[in-house]
Design goal:
Number of domains: 1
Number of helices: 3
Organism: Amycolatopsis bartoniae
Pfam families: PP-binding (PF00550)
Oligomer: single chain
CATH topology: Non-ribosomal Peptide Synthetase Peptidyl Carrier Protein, Chain A
Protein name: Acyl carrier protein
Radius of gyration: 13 Å
InterPro entries: ACP-like_sf (IPR036736), PP-bd_ACP (IPR009081)
CATH class: Mainly Alpha
CATH architecture: Orthogonal Bundle
Structural class: mainly alpha
Order of helices and strands: HHH
Helix content: 40-55%
Length: 86
Amino acid sequence: MDELVAGVRKLVCDTFLLDPATVRPDTPLEELGLDSKGRIRLLATVEVFYEVSIDLDERDRLTDVNAVAQVLAEALEKKPGETAAS
């Protein structure tokens, strides 16, 4: 899970041009300037980067980096397994 948290933290910093020193795993996304539209953008970015599908209704759960990582972990568990041939 720590690896997912670190990946999500980097994605948040890169996507919203934030200083990594200001983004802790428990910093509320609202404090970082992410409103509901920002959370939707983050959700879309996570989906593309990790090649998962996350229901738009999950955006309300995206309260901080830890929560985003948790939603991502759940989506990764539901992701169909990749075969060796792919």
